[in-house]
Amino acid sequence: MPETILPDPVELTKALIAAESITPARGAVFDVLEAALLPLGFRVERFVEGEAPEGPVENLLAVRDGAGPHFAFAGHLDVVPPGQGWTSDAFTPEVRGDLLYGRGAVDMKGAIAAFVAAAARVPEGMVGLIITGDEEGPATYGTPRLIERMAERGLTPDMCLVGEPTSQHRLGDMIKIGRRGSTVIDIAIPGKQGHVAYPHLADNPVPRLVRALAEIDAIELDQGNAWFQSSNIEIIDMAVGNPATNVIPGHAGARISIRFNDQQRGPDLIARIEEIVQRHAPSGIVKGRVYGEAFLTEPGALSALVAGAIQARLGLAPELSTTGGTSDARFLSKLCPVVEFGLLNATMHKLDEAVALADLAALTDVYEEVLRRVMQ
To answer: How many Å separate Cα 372 from the centre of its chain?
Structure first.
């Protein structure tokens, strides 16, 4: 039999970058990944879910059968829009010096290429890949639908590693074992438009909005705990839409964003904001959306396993952290223990996003070590 050629993580990263996949992603980028997985013995299932504007979204579930625990890698092939001002085309991968440039190089096509290359080096054991085309967007039709599909197939993993770019200053210095939750709340206060010289004939909604926002801004939700920083409320937008200088506006609105730790729950926070708004403006309308609850994978077997692999291959002890924004680990944490570990996050979402070639090779080594420790 001909010898199997192991995937090169650099070349696979290049191929994934070249398949433009601005969120929500479908098509060519999944073709590239599927083509890399099939020769390695993975069963690959792809499906498209959802309608515009939050869809359609493509997802991929791949499993290689084997003995032992089911270890899953998880991640996303969609990327944020590149923006203007790149040195070279964002979707034409280019090596300059020791770096590979392209949108998605670190967030997170490089990690997905490392998943594949590591799995090829450890051909025994049950390994899954949980890959969505909608992590950078609303995630409505992404990982939650993959979780439903896994439940239908009886493919719940025993542990999961999400390849988000968690490293801060050098590869391997940080593992994420949890994330804060996120909710965005819109506030609309109706009024009655009128002439500023006749305020008794109008109803200005702005003072009521300002009073409500002042009370909201003064809230101290908590002081954090051993694993999480304090929860914070930020007013991120105010809108009246009144270009005139002599008109009392007929409406006023605002948007707030709350990042919260595991002492809070998203629906409770929305209800608290609604209660404040109703006291200041009984006709006010509050609409909130919870993008994810806080979660924590207590330090234990999985974090120790990944930290041990990093120590063995890179020679450093990673910090266990819950800092940063949300990720799809918020969904996967409901299935099994989950941690996040991947490339340096210095250039993610930026112009000229780039990954060090040496880091791609080293990340593949760490993921290989993780699999060997799981399967031993």
So the answer is: 27
Which of 49, 58, 78, 262 is flagged as catalytic? 78
CA–CA separation, 38 vs 59, rounded Å?
16
Does residue 296 have a pLDDT over 80?
Answer: yes
For residue 250, the tally of other CB atoms under 10 A from its CB is 17
Amino acid at 222: D
Per-residue three-class SS string for 105-169: HHHHHHHHHHHHHHHHHCCCCEEEEEEECCCCCCCCCCHHHHHHHHHHHCCCCCEEEECCCCECC
- Residue-by-residue DSSP string for 196-253: TT-GGGSB--HHHHHHHHHHHHT-------SS-PPPEEEEEEEE-----SSEE-SEEE
Distance CA 351, CA 103 (A): 8
| Contact between 262 and 230 (Cβ < 8 Å) | no
Contacts of 227 (CB under 8 A, 6+ apart): 177, 178, 262, 296, 322
Catalytic residue among 49, 107, 134, 135: 135
Both tokens assigned to 248: 């009392």
Averaged over 50-61, what is the pLDDT?
Answer: 94
> Has 203 been annotated as catalytic?
no
Strand 247-248, strand 194-195: pairing: antiparallel
Residues 202, 251: contact at Cβ < 8 Å?
no
Q: Are strands 57-64 and 43-49 parallel, antiparallel or unpaired?
A: antiparallel
Distance CA 33, CA 55 (A): 20
Instruction: Enter the pTM of the model.
Output: 0.90
DSSP annotation of 199: G
Burial class (CB in 10 A: 0-12, 13-18, 19+), 77: buried
Q: Are 184 and 325 in contact (CB under 8 A)?
A: no
* Distance between CA atoms of residues 343 and 329, nearest Å: 16
Q: pLDDT over 70 for what percent of the chain?
A: 99
The H-assigned helical ranges of 233-300 are: 266-280
Decide: 363 and 310 in contact? Cβ < 8 Å.
no
| Whether the bond into 53 is cis, omega within 30 of 0 | yes
Coil, helix or strand for 251?
strand
**What three-state secondary structure class fits 192?**
strand
**Does 78 qualify as catalytic in the annotation?**
yes
